[in-house]
Fold each of these.
Amino acid sequence: MAVFPLLLAVLLLPSVHAFQENTRCVDISPHPDPEQISGLPVELGKEFTATCLLRQKDLNANHIVWAYSNGHKVITLPRESYRKINDSAGSITVNVTQDMTGFFTCAVDHHHTISQSDCKGYSYGILLDRGYPPEKPTDLTCQTVQVGSRMSNNVTCHWNPGTRDPVMHTNYTLYIEESGDVYHRRESNSSGTVVLKIFPHHMDVKIWVEAENRLGKATSEVLNQDADSLIKTNPPAKVRIISEQAIPRSLLIQWNHTIDQTYVMLKYNIRFCEKDSHTWSEVPRKNTKDYQDSFRLQELKPYTEYMVQVRCKSQKDLGYWSDWSRNATARTAEDQPSSKPDLWMNTTVDGDQKIVQVFLKKPLESNGKILQYEIKIVQGGVTREPPSLLPFEGEKPFQLFEFTVPRQSVAYVNVTANNSVGSSPPGDLAVPWMALELPAVSDVGALAQDGLLWVRWSAPVLKGLPVEYVLQWVSLLDGAWDWQREPRNATKACVKGNLQPFVPYNVTVVPIYHRRFRDMHLRLPGRAATVTTYLEEGVPDVVPMAEVLQTWKSSAELLWKEIPLVKQRGFITHYIIIYESKGVKTAETVAPDMHSLILKNLTKDTTYKVHIEAWTAAGYRKSDFFYMSTPKYDPGEIELIVVCVCFGFLFFTILTLRLCFKNKETLKKKFWPQVPDPYNSTVAKWSPDLSARAGTPKETTLGDLSVVEVDVFDQKSLCDEDKTSLPALKKDKYLSEEHSSGIGGSSCMSSPRQSVSDSDEADSGQTTASTVQYSSVVGYKGQTPGGGAASTAASSSSSSSSSSSSTVTAATPAPAHTFARSESTQPLLDCEEQQEGSGQSGAGRGGGGSLFRRPHRGGFGDAGDGSGGPTQLHPSEQDEQDSLEFGPAEDAAAVEQPQTQTQPAATQLPRPSYMPQQSGYRPQ
Amino acid sequence: MRGHGRIAPALGPPFKDNNLCVSLLVLLLVCTCVSSSQGVSCSQTSCCNSLQKTLQLTRLLHRESTALLKTYKANQGEGVELICQAQSEGVPEATVSGQDWAERLMGTHVRLQEFAPHLRYVAEQQADLQPAASPLLNTLAQVQLRCPHLSGRLHCLLQLLLPNSVLEPPGPTGQPLLPPLNSFQQKAYGCNVLTRFRAFLFNSQRELKALRGVACKRRTAPPSYTIGFHRH
């Protein structure tokens, strides 16, 4: 509600602000100084009370709204903090916050006013200059540096203005008071420089800093001190060193005073070090506390280059030390070597001789430039003359001297190092004596710590402890080696050589014993004890890729090469082979001396992501990934399965065949049911006369044959196309459905009784006793009544196979759907034999019409094609005929083909009175 | 301003004149006021320390005055020795008189202040004779600036050693009353002032050195011996 007018008021503030006081209807107290554009100073976090004065009578203090802007929006202050003074004045007390960046406004709702006055503007705002009062400056320090031969007039001071940001602008003023004059300089940071007329030597000064802003003022502690305490002079000039030949262990240092003592009485500080060592030694200050310009350094090393630096400060210990002077360098004079040369040796046996290699290092305290080694070989107590002289070669860390001694002899070498001043004390070492093998140290171990390699050992338990130890180290990579000596009571030592990290070293500890042999005092080396170690171990540089030697469906064999020594960079602690598949990661740990692994429990037909990690004490490095697939089958598994399957199949086949053979009869009956053999039928006896005419039985029975042509395959055609014939068929009561269906199938299985009944119906005038009952055969498939196709069908129909019927039917022309029915009292086999023997012409003719016809007795011959009457075959011959009929349909057609070619002549013949049986019956 | 007049020993023979005591007390108060208005603050240091610093500063000023005289002569052209042999009137003496160390210390303080206008006059003369960047002018200015330091030190030492002493009002500190001088006379005058000033500082050093082993230990009984002054 009140926000809109408030916003409007804030927007109009500049214009409102410009109004004269007597024209404003609203005013705020306290009012900031108009000259201070930053606003009214207020302290952050403290309470601030403002009063809003209403200068129009109609305005009411209840309608005052206080608000402030944070730069983005206007925030109305809660009414709980309002306080009504009277009807024309209200105040508010708020906690000053950081976000009060905009105007702090007082607005009043004037819609309730009635009278119009001259005042304008119903809101007024003031800016708040937020901040903190300054903190007291601390840690005030001042300094004056030397310029030329005098101290500068400029005094530079630093102070700590405090940790709290005053937020508002704060001025810092540096004051220096000397001899009644006060100098000051206004600064805005934590340091400042005051320029004096002249530096007040030997005078007292007062220095302080005053911090001031609009919220207050704070003054630091006053430094009331001698002006000399501000002094920092230049370092001593022209520092030089004088080396005196007569005093090889001393150097004289001289310098110039940097400033006259009347200004500052200086004291000095000297430090020195061997060149390039940078480990400074300081001369005790009490020795240089006087105002002096020279000093003699003593107890230095001869023939050593030293660096010297000097600095100065007020003797009263006021002020600051000057910077160190620049390096002054000089070398002490030469002196004779004060320590013996270092010897070490290596012996090899060559036949009866022992080849001794002596390694020589110059004395640690050479005290000059070594010129040569003087080597004496003492063998069996006798010194070889003259002694050997080996020129010193300074560029080598050590030199080699070689000689031979008899294998069983006792010998030692005695070496001195000479410089231009004199000779060193002699160093000696005995050639290892085969007859006296002295024990080695025990418990040798190495430890790298803080970049140093420490070797520990235990002294050998032996009467006559070692007099010293020799530590020899050799790099296993490049063969670099060196040795060092340790005292007799040492049980550990730091290897001083320039060892490199990640390089394997063999560190050998050799005790040196003192033994007396005859008149000789021998320093005999004992046996060596060696440990391999690293100064610092790292992760291996490389990790070899593993090679998959062989894979099985559930395992795989990996092989990898050993990491070369130069690449190991540490002791390989173990390998980890990590293989991963389908997000499942598996790790196998392998000992460091193993370089092959068989991964087990793998999943067949799976690809694995494999890598190797080689671990050292410092960590590990991974090899590149490679992929490995397990096969679906193990090698030979497929072959095994195939063989098994083949054997199984073979076994099954054999078993099946055996069962077939074993149940041959059953199967035969099942698939090829027996057809009653009329020939061997015992239902009735043939009449004597018939038996007498056994040669031509068909001729006597042909008259009883009836021919029925029924299309059993296409009743439709029968019904539709032979509608005219059906009545006749019904009339004759020779529906195909009422009779057995013919050869094979049900026809073959038709009962004699039915046949008898049929005969009875067909020929009611005959008596059962006087007539021979024959099977009535109904024409069946393949008996195509007409055309050449019919003859073919008739030929094929001789086959009792029902499967061939469809083929024949398909080849049969549609119009001829007549079937022949035989109702002859003559055995059908005769007809069939005759049919077979006479060709298929009769059948072809029989297929020409669709009628039922009762054949004539004895008319068979007429109906034939002149090929002769039916010949009754012997059962064996009948079998042969049957076997022919079981051939493929094509063959049958092929066989019949010549016959069909002769058909045109046959078609000229009169239609036979019956349809001959195409195929014979199986003998029963 | 600092006192300039007779030395009044604080712990000398007992005063018999009460009026004199009152007047001395008034003078002391006035002196204190003048001193405080001068702005010279004397830190609460020991006598020995104050004397040591005074001596050090006297040495420093002596060294600077020596360098100044050398520079002055180097900048006056040929015949400077002849010039310096010419005597000039009105130049303060280099000696400090007094029956005891207190009077001589007070006299040293007074004499130092007497040199101040002469040094300033020499500086003004040389500013006309020398180029602006001349090191002589710079050195002259430095010596002039150093004089108040020594004066302050002497004042503090006097306050420390003779807290009841009455410092007479200073004499005229403006231009010395000298007749108009030609260039030669100015050079001679300058040389005389600087020479005497250096001698004065030398004498002051000796006086202070002599004071070092006596004044701070026997403040209640000032020594009565006299020290021979170096005169020029």
Note: The helical segments of chain B are 18-38, 47-74, 80-85, 101-129, 135-161, 183-212.
Amino acid sequence: MSLAAEAFVSQIAAAEPWPENATLYQPLKEDQILLSDCASSLAVQAYLRMCGLPVQVRCRANAEYMSPSGKVPFIHVGNQVISELGPIVQFTKAKGHSLSDGLDDVQRAEMKAYMELVNNMLLTAELYIQWCDDNTAAEWEIRRKMSAVGWAGKSLEQVYEDVSQCCQALSQRLGTQPYFFNKQPTELDALVFGHIFTILTTRLTNDELADRIKAYSNLLAFCRRIEQSYFDEQDKDGQSGSSRFSKGPSLI
Amino acid sequence: MGTVHARSMDTLPMQGRDLGVHPDDLDVMEVQQETKQEILENKDVVVQHVNIEGLGRTKEDYLGYEISEVFNAKNLVDVMKKSHEARQRLLRLGIFKEVEVIIDISEGADALPNGLDVTFEVTELKRLTGSYNTMVGNNEGSMVLGIKLPNMFGRGEKLTFQFSYGTKETSYGLSFFKPQPGCFERNFTLNLYKVTGQFPWSSLKETDRGISTELNFPLWMTDHTLKWEGVWRELGCLARSASFAVREESGHTLKSALSHTMVIDTRNSAILPKKGALLRINQELAGYTGGDASFLKEDFELQLNKPFILGSVLSASLWGGMLFPIGGQPTSIADRFYLGGPTSVRGFGMYSIGPQSEGDYLGGEAYWAGGIHLYTPLPFRSSRGGLADLFRTHFFLNAGNLCNLNYGEGPRAHLQKLAECIRWSYGAGIVLKLGNIARLELNYCIPMGVQSGDRICDGVQFGAGIRFL
């Protein structure tokens, strides 16, 4: 978001408290939701839960057209509409809810760097795998899309290798801590959770990617921890309910 | 206007003077011609040949029907009248630039003493014509480039391509028209188009890409149109500040609809008629031939005109419509009715009456609107004809209502709902007639019955368009 837009959103946001009827919109669940969209939506949901802000999840076929930036998910709060994790974090900050306030400047820069890493690596890998998995996209179409994101010339093997390396970096940073910045979760935790959890729980024709991630046990434990803390605690009776997760299976 | 030439006939006791007769003046022939006219009228003639000269690509069999009536003429005046009518019929086909009629005595071996030959000399339109126009629609202006291929295959087929760039809209379209040989009023049209529109009153922009086929035919005194249309509609927000209700309608939908229109038009002119009436009833059924949109839409338009005292005209009009969603789906903002504005209930903002959300007007599923007008010629006109004839002064009373209906309730509840909270307005102004297609209005309006949420245009309001309440 541009600086002017950020300032505008902050001004408007600061005025009112978080309403009860805040809603998050994402594409329909069935076959239509892309891997990357699912991950992004889960990341935003995790972040809002970590902040303790209630939000209802609604699925709409035209969610990407409804979004002001064309990307999903987006939230409808009061009469404001904000899409994507970055702007949503800004928005909640303007309302006085923030997870990264406790960080000093160095840590904040680090957090941003890791978020960029996740966005560049994992998001793009998800897109690639989705396209390959479709089996309907021709080889040349995939190659064209990959060169559009700057990944021309990478084979599936290389993509897996890149994902592995990204996960290794994350795993090293996480170490034995509960969250990336020790005791308290931040937006980085939400983002990593969203992507890793989606890759692990989505049924693809090729499970190699999931297997590679499972090699990093601390990431697995991290995902389980977040799932238990933030997604199961409100739902002691069972799993179902449209206001919960978008994807069924859990890690536990 | 063409001229009809008639050579004198030797068997008549006349002094060999050429008669130059104009068909329009048939009723006002001078008295000294009366004796000659009598002789002419009583004279039996037989039309032996009817020729058409100047045909290039037009096929002769196509024109046979238009000129066949001329053979039935029994005397000279009848021949001239029927030739004139045939000339009009040839011109309305839209394939000739000019048609001249020549009536001559028959010559040749098989010529009868009272035989006549009628010849139509035609000038065909060029194969390809281009045009550039500026157009004024309902409160917007645009530049229109056109390419036309009239009479492509020789039987009246027409192919048109149009590109329109406007203040609010950009569109292009390809149209193919084919009349039935022998009955021009029965015709078939195929359209392919892309139209973009911006509707700031709803913060909505719409892009339609569609194909439609249309069949027109007359039936007794009425004109009917049957049409199938398939449209891929893309709706989007015009501004980031669009209301959420409009945002929810964004996206792509497909509409496949069959529609039927019936028109009875006895007015003497489409714009500022002096007498006559218009009734237009239209229904549209969407969803049974595919697509996402599923509804039945009915709307009608009624207009009555009557000359009043001192050259003024009293005019009353009534519009109404209903949209019934089918299958429990909600209706789309692109299908609903809108009300208000200089072409509708005057004194209110453009389409700014009825259900709205955060300042964006969402339209309604049922509406009615009515108007009573008194048109008078401008006072103190110096002479008949001239620019002053295109103007009228105009006193009006408009009323209307637009709302959504809950179709579970009965018709009584619906009528009640449409009858409460009526918006109405009155005022006066000046109307200018533009060609035979459009009109401009400048009115002073006083809106009344304004409900919360409506936007008004109190005072002076300017309007330009084709269809006015």
Note: The domain at 2-124 of chain B is CATH 3.10.20.310 (Ubiquitin-like (UB roll)).
